[in-house]
């Protein structure tokens, strides 16, 4: 791998054990960058000022940070922020053959160690064993002039920043504290994780999910070899610190307004490193908010209505769920509109279910289309109640969209005469198992934001085989498979972290590693990146092949709306 | 028509030559350049942070979706007679792509009024994330003019194009910086691995157009 590191000097690439080392070119600096600005004597360095600069690329004045690369290529604002490349954790990253080194104080201000005597050094991809420590002065010179601690020119990708002395001091103060606090939920021999279950979660799915989690944790701990000391070798040897995994189940009670307080109490009583999987019902928003505010990674919960806020850092989801279905249906409606002679869209959802948000998203998406959209909320009640009157006046030129659960689908009245088309939510209706009456199957199209049964069949042998060998009852295949997959993804990611157990770094590593996976259960592929929080991005529109049975026919290829 | 195109390319070569200093008169001529090979060597030596090679790539006949939503086929899109400068990017990339894209921004500026005679092409290697709308936003971020176009499509199509250019690294997080230039349909591609500056790309483009 090519590395961007403090010591990068040469203009030619060296190859070391298949890894190409840094190509760092020396160059003439613009003279004005060399002139230090007069410092404001007596100003105390402010880590908060440093953080704004580091994360958002904003100067104390609120103006955007500006940097410059050789040849006058400028960077500004968020793109110029340190976190863009060195990441929020400060532990660096890599892209292709380029390795971005860690820049936390704990790393920079210590000498590199070969056969690690200094156990406090973070061992990450960009770790350079042989190097001198930086001082405040040489670090400031690196940032302003692009020279490392020994005066060698840094890699081309590292911009030069003209910071005044006070701002520089604040940035260095921030770097000294960055990723240095003890990490909650990490002890010498155990990593603590929580899973969160909302009170309205399906009890059958809950049981199935917990069985998978318990089994995975038991398997993990079966390989525990007893207490082991922290990292004691360089990254040349992939020594993995051996820790037990402990699961804490945080079952919420009462109304959603009280969940955040409950979660804070749980986290205070039992600190955890991350939240894994989990099970939601009508809303996941309070859990999402808690994770973001408490800076706890919340990885891949089983929720059909996630929170679409990709600027948030800690919550990571499989997909947008029913919101993705709304996008798929919107795309299909606008595409088929002329062919089907559509004039109106009639949506139906049951009050208090996730269909409300999906219907809202669809209505908003169609707002400028010229298609009239009517959204009808059915009162909570017995299965099928209110459906006949809601669908009563639909007919030719209408598309009906059903945001309904299986019990309501099974109780659908006779479809309206000359109905053009009906769409239903696959996630809410139980996919190919949806008990859609035969009379609806001709006109009905289903949003299917997963890979098709035939195409995922071989891939599914992995989780299903694992369940079989371990005698796990498959009571909710999708929830249990997604739970198993979340465990595998966490386990692989932790394996890549060596012993740098840092919450932000966990999310950063998931971002980088996820798209390397080839076998992903229900999903044809998963992928993230900085600013991406939904790993699967598309789906199909399908219809039933026959008036009975579960065979599906795809109307579209894999579509990314 | 052919003649007209040829003239406009000659004009482009002259403009580029003007931007980059004196060039032998022969370069602006339509005659083949007897010193092309020597100059290629010289150009290779001049690249500061990149290596240069030439190759013939066969363009796959895949469909791509342009940032304006138009569905196009790759060969037809690239074989429109203009010289092409092509790279692979993704919009949530933090390290390599911003540098490549900024180089294109600068190249646009260097080309000035002649920019319309060159086709700048950025193809997404994260096509499911990079919808046409996201590509448009990215284009705005880098002040892309009307002749710098962005392309997405299915994952399979993106991979096929990356493979055709021998730029597929298995995953977007493994990608390496590479830029391709070609004078016109039927000519070889110049491949530049690494970070070429906009000056270097402009010089390369000038040479390609001059020897066309």
**What's the total count of β strands of chain B?**
8
Oligomer: heterodimer
Class of chain B, according to the CATH hierarchy? Alpha Beta
Strand tally of chain A: 20
First-to-last CA distance of chain B: 16 Å
Domain unit count of chain A: 3
The averaged pLDDT of chain A comes out at 88
Low-pLDDT sequence parts of chain B: 1-7, 17-34
Q: Number of helical segments of chain A?
A: 18
- What is the radius of gyration of chain A computed over CA atoms, rounded to a whole number of angstroms? 27 Å
Sketch the topology of chain B as an H/E string, one letter per element.
HHEEEHEHEHEHEEH
Number of helices of chain B: 7
Give the overall shape of chain B: globular
Write structural notes for this entry.
- The complex is a heterodimer of chains A (561) and B (212).
- Chain A is an alpha/beta fold.
- Chain A has 3 domains: 2-177, no CATH class; 190-318 and 455-526, Response regulator (Rossmann fold, 3-Layer(aba) Sandwich); 322-448 and 541-554, Rossmann fold.
- Chain A is 33% helix and 15% strand.
- Chain A is built from 18 helices and 20 strands.
- Chain A has helices spanning 31-34, 47-56, 82-86, 105-108, 136-145, 165-177, 203-222, 259-269, 285-294, 322-340, 355-366, 387-391, 406-410, 426-429, 438-441, 453-469, 477-496, 503-513; strands spanning 2-3, 15-16, 19-20, 66-69, 73-76, 93-95, 98-100, 160-161, 190-197, 244-251, 274-276, 298-299, 315-316, 344-350, 372-378, 398-403, 421-425, 444-448, 540-544, 552-554.
- Chain B is α+β, with helices and mostly antiparallel strands and 212 residues long.
- Chain B has a single domain (2-210), classed as Glutaredoxin (3-Layer(aba) Sandwich).
- In chain B, helix 5 (132-141) links the parallel strand 5 and strand 6.
- In chain B, helix 4 (96-111) crosses helix 7 (198-210).
């Amino acid at each position: 791998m090519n590395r961007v590191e403090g010591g990068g000097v040469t203009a030619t690439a060296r190859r070391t054990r298949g890894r190409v080392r840094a190509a760092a070119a020396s160059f003439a600096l613009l003279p004005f960058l060399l002139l230090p600005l007069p410092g404001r004597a007596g100003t105390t360095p402010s880590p908060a000022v440093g953080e704004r600069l580091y994360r958002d690329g904003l100067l104390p004045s609120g103006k955007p940070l500006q940097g410059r690369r050789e040849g006058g290529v400028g960077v500004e604002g968020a793109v110029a922020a340190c976190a863009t490349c060195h990441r929020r954790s400060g532990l660096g990253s890599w892209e292709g053959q380029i390795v971005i080194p860690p820049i936390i104080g704990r790393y920079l201000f210590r000498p590199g160690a070969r056969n690690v005597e200094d156990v406090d050094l973070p061992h990450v991809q960009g770790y350079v064993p042989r190097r001198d420590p930086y001082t405040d002065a040489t670090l400031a010179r690196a940032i302003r002039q692009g020279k490392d601690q020994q005066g060698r020119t840094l890699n081309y990708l590292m911009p030069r920043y003209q910071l005044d002395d006070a701002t520089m001091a604040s940035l260095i103060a921030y770097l000294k504290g960055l990723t240095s606090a003890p990490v909650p939920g990490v002890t010498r021999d155990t990593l603590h994780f929580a899973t969160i279950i909302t009170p309205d979660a399906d009890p059958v799915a809950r049981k199935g999910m917990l069985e998978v989690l318990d089994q995975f944790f038991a398997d993990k701990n079966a390989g525990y070899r007893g207490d082991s000391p922290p990292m004691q070798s360089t990254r040349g040897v992939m020594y993995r610190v051996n820790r037990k995994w402990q699961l804490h189940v945080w079952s919420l009670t009462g109304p959603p307004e009280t969940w955040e307080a409950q979660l804070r109490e749980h986290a205070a009583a039992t600190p955890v490193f991350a939240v894994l999987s989990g099970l939601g019902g009508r809303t996941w928003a309070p859990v999402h908010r808690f994770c973001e505010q408490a800076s706890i990674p919340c990885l891949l919960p089983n929720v059909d209505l996630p929170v679409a806020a990709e600027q948030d850092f800690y919550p990571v989801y499989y997909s947008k769920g029913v919101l993705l279905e709304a996008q798929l249906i919107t795309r299909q409606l606008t595409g088929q509109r002329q062919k089907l002679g559509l004039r109106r869209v009639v949506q139906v959802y049951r009050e208090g279910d996730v269909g409300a948000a999906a219907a809202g998203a669809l209505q908003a998406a169609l707002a400028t289309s010229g298609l009239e959209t009517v959204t009808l909320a059915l009162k909570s009640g017995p299965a099928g109640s209110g459906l006949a009157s809601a669908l009563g006046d639909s007919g030719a030129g209408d598309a009906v969209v059903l945001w309904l659960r299986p019990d309501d689908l099974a109780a659908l009245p006779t479809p309206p005469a000359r109905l053009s088309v009906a769409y239903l939510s696959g996630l809410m209706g139980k996919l190919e198992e949806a008990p859609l009456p035969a009379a609806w199957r001709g006109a009905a199209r289903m949003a299917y934001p997963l890979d098709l049964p035939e195409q995922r069949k071989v891939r599914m042998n992995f989780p299903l085989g694992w369940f079989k060998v371990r005698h796990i009852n498959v009571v909710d295949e999708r929830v249990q498979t997604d739970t198993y997959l979340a465990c595998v993804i966490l386990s692989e990611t932790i394996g890549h972290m060596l012993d740098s157990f840092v919450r932000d770094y966990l999310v950063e590593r998931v971002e980088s590693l996820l798209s390397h996976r080839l076998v992903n259960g229900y999903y044809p592929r998963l992928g993230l990146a900085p600013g991406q929080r939904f790993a699967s991005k598309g789906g199909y529109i399908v219809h039933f092949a026959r008036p009975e049975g579960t065979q599906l026919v795809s109307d579209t290829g894999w579509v990314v709306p | 028509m052919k003649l007209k195109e040829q003239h406009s390319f000659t004009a482009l070569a002259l403009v580029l030559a003007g931007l980059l200093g004196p060039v032998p008169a022969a370069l602006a001529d339509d005659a083949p350049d007897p010193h092309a090979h020597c100059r290629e060597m010289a150009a290779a030596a001049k690249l500061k942070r990149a290596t240069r090679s030439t190759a013939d790539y066969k363009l796959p006949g895949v469909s791509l979706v342009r940032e304006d939503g138009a569905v196009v086929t790759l060969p037809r899109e690239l074989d429109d007679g203009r010289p092409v400068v092509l790279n692979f990017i993704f919009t949530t990339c933090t390290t390599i792509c911003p540098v490549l894209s900024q180089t294109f921004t600068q190249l646009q500026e260097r080309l000035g009024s002649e920019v319309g005679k060159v086709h700048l092409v950025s193809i997404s290697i994260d096509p499911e994330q990079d919808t046409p709308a996201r590509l448009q936003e990215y284009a705005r971020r880098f002040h892309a003019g009307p002749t710098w176009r962005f392309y997405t499509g299915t994952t399979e199509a993106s991979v096929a194009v990356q493979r055709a250019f021998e730029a597929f690294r298995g995953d977007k997080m493994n990608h390496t910086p590479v830029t391709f230039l070609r004078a016109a349909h039927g000519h070889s591609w110049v491949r530049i691995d690494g970070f070429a500056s906009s000056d270097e790309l402009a010089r390369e483009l000038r040479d390609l157009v001059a020897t066309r």
